From TrEMBL:
NCBIfam families: GGDEF. SUPFAM superfamilies: Nucleotide cyclase (SSF55073). GO terms for molecular function: diguanylate cyclase activity; GTP binding. Its cofactor is Mg(2+). The keyword Transmembrane applies. Residues 247-379 form the GGDEF domain. PANTHER family: DIGUANYLATE CYCLASE DGCM-RELATED, REGULATORY COMPONENTS OF SENSORY TRANSDUCTION SYSTEM. It is an enzyme of class 2 (transferase). This is diguanylate cyclase.
Length: 379
């Protein structure tokens, strides 16, 4: 099992609320549906409470009065739809497989209720607020659902066609004025959606750029630039995390033999290259991504091996020696070999020991390995 490095936790604190575009759309829906519910609740309550709120008198309606209870009933249907929108806006519902279908059904229901009402308001009762009501409903839906075309169309298309038909009905046919008004409104709907989608895309692009930057900074903060291994800070976080999670692990602390002589003989830049080569050998000797290779400081490295037994750890130590032998980086001033070698101290985590104590145990083993001749390991 991999020890998730603690900086992963840090990432989750600042983590995006969405992992991909689909998730972002879901997040936007969770915010937009209650807004839509609010708009529909407001308008349906205004119609239902017309006597109290606006001092409206049904007696002024001269024709088709039998439709009054039908409209009241439709407003109750809208209120039921409002409740369904609120329920659907719950994140669990949004992530459910049938969410889109459910949402489409509710939006079609709302649109049907408003379409019929708008037709009656305009064509039979000649109410002055009928046209602004339809336009406001259409625009608020564009604002709420512009990023979700199929849901948007479910509401917009029936209401748009019905309102347009009502205009044709009262004007007894099509004429230039109707075409101008509805053409203008349609253009406004399309333009506002295009504008909002553009902002949405720009926000998504900027968000991705920021995430990339955050991850680059995170890498820089946790990686050693010379050897491309984890730095000391990342190592300490990693060990603390493993200890806290009580994940058993072994560590190998290793040191390049006679590295001062290497520097003195080949120069500091060659020493840098040598360290990068040693790091490559270490990386190829471990399992990835489970094991962590870190530069502890100078020419010292630490390898963390989760769930590794003593036998596993010694096998890794052996592989490190093999990899270095294969690389055979010349080191003519070494007293133990003609190529670059390392000495290693091995230790395993024990209950009750903190990260520093475990490193100290491995360091003591490394000291013993050095004392007993270098180019070897001690447990
Ligand atoms: N080129 C290079 N040298 C480094 C770097 N960090 C530390 N060193 C050198 O590593 C050498 C470490 O020397 P010592 O601690 O005496 O160890 P050693 O010579 O390897 O001796 P033993 O460990 O006893 O075998 C020093 O000369 C440091 O200057 C680095 O980033 N690049």
């Amino acid at each position: 099992m991999k020890i998730s490095p603690p900086h992963d936790n840090r990432v989750s604190e600042t983590a995006p609320q969405w992992l991909n575009r689909h998730d972002m759309v879901n997040h936007a829906l969770a915010r937009a549906l209650p807004f839509l519910a609010c708009v529909h609740a407001t308008f349906s309550l205004m119609v239902l409470l017309r006597f109290r709120l606006m001092g409206y008198d049904d007696a002024t309606i001269l024709t088709a009065r039998e439709l009054i209870p039908v409209i009241d009933m439709l407003m109750c249907v809208v209120l039921a739809g409002v409740v369904m929108l609120v329920v659907l806006s719950h994140r669990k519902m949004i992530c459910s497989p049938h969410f889109r279908i459910r949402c489409q059904v509710v939006l079609l229901l709302l649109s049907a209720a408003w379409s019929f009402s708008a037709f009656v308001f305009t064509a039979f009762w000649h109410l002055p607020f009928a046209f602004p009501l339809s336009v406001t409903l259409l625009l608020s839906t564009v604002v709420a659902l512009y990023f979700h075309l199929s849901l948007l169309l479910c509401f917009v298309l029936p209401l748009w066609f019905m309102s347009f038909s009502a205009s044709l009905y009262i004007n007894q046919g099509i004429n230039a004025r109707i075409l101008l008004i509805w053409g203008g409104c349609t253009l406004i709907f399309i333009y506002s959606r295009w504008l909002l989608v553009r902002w949405f895309n720009e926000a998504w692009q900027r968000y991705n750029e920021n995430q990339l930057l955050v991850s680059r900074l995170d890498t820089m903060a946790h990686q050693d630039a010379l050897t491309q291994t984890a730095n000391r800070r990342a190592l300490e976080d990693h060990l603390q995390h493993a200890v806290a999670q009580q994940i058993p692990f072994s560590i190998i602390i290793l040191d390049v033999d006679y590295f001062k002589r290497y520097n003195d003989n080949y120069g500091h830049q060659a020493g840098d290259k040598c360290l990068a080569n040693v790091a490559d050998a270490l990386k190829s000797a471990v399992r990835t991504p489970e094991d962590l290779v870190a530069r502890y400081g100078g020419e010292e490295f630490v390898i963390v091996l989760p769930h590794a037994s003593q036998q596993d750890t010694e096998r890794v130590a052996q592989r490190i020696q093999q990899c270095l032998a294969e690389k055979a980086l010349p080191h003519e001033k070494s007293e133990v070999s003609g190529w670059v070698t390392v000495s290693m101290g091995l230790a395993n985590s024990e209950n009750g020991k903190n990260a520093n104590e475990i490193i100290a145990t491995a360091d003591a083993a490394l000291y013993r390995a050095k004392q007993s001749g270098r180019n070897r390991w001690a447990y």
